[in-house]
Specification:
Elements: E1 7-15, H1 21-36, E2 40-45, E3 55-61, E4 77-81, E5 87-92, H2 93-102, H3 107-123, H4 144-151, H5 159-171
Parallel strand pairs: 1-2, 1-3, 3-5
Antiparallel strand pairs: 4-5
Helix pairs in contact: 1-3, 2-3
This protein binds zinc ion.
C-alpha cells in the first residue's frame, strides 16, 4: 500500500517490570502491526530526555500505584500527560500477566493490546467521549472473546476511532 502521507508515532519504551525481552519484543511488534492496519507507523526508541511533545513514553511497571489500586475492576494500564504535555502510557505488567493466565492466552498478546489501548487514549482527540468504544480494542474492559481476538491478532480499533486517530495525527502537522 502506498500512502501519500505517512502518519507516524515515536514511542520511547521503558521496561521497569523485568518483562522478558522476547515477550516485550513480540508485544512491540504486535502493537506496531495493530497501528499499521490503521495507517500509522510506529517506531521505537530508547528513553531519553527528549522534550519533544510528540514523543510518547510507554512505561511498563509491575503494579498500579495510588488511587488506581482502588478501582473495582482490574486495570492493566493508564494514560496520562505530564505537566509539559508529554503523553505517558503506563502498563501494569503483573495485571497483564494475571489476565493472560485467567483467559488462557499469551502474555505478549495481552501486553500488546494493553499498550495499544493506552496509546489510543493519548492519540484520540481530547474529549472524545471517555476514549472508550463499545467494541474492539478501545472497550473499557475486555471479555473472553476479546482476549481470544487479541490472541489471534484481531483485537483492533473500530473504524470511527481509527479515522479520529489519523485525523488528530494529521492535525499536528505530522
Ligand atoms: Zn481505556
Amino acid at each position: 500500500m502506498v500512502r501519500a502521507l505517512a502518519l507516524s508515532v515515536v514511542l520511547q519504551l521503558a521496561n521497569a517490570a523485568h518483562v522478558p525481552s522476547m515477550t516485550l519484543r513480540e508485544a512491540q511488534h504486535e502493537l506496531s502491526r495493530v497501528y499499521h492496519t490503521i495507517g500509522v507507523d510506529v517506531s521505537w526508541s530508547r528513553p531519553d530526555s527528549s522534550r519533544d511533545p510528540f514523543t510518547i513514553r510507554v512505561i511498563v511497571i509491575e503494579y498500579e500505584t495510588g488511587e488506581l489500586q482502588h478501582r473495582p475492576r482490574t486495570v492493566m494500564g493508564a494514560a496520562v500527560r505530564t505537566a509539559e504535555g508529554t503523553g505517558v502510557a503506563a502498563i501494569f505488567y503483573r495485571r497483564v500477566e494475571s489476565q493472560a493466565n485467567q483467559y488462557a492466552v499469551t502474555t505478549r498478546s495481552v501486553l500488546a493490546c494493553a499498550m495499544a489501548h493506552e496509546l489510543g487514549h493519548l492519540l484520540l482527540p481530547n474529549g472524545f467521549r471517555d476514549g472508550h468504544s463499545t467494541l474492539g480494542l478501545m472497550r473499557a474492559s475486555w471479555d473472553r472473546d476479546d482476549f481470544q481476538r487479541a490472541e489471534r491478532g484481531q483485537l483492533r480499533f473500530e473504524p470511527e476511532q481509527a479515522a479520529l486517530i489519523r485525523s488528530s495525527l494529521k492535525g499536528r502537522g505530522n
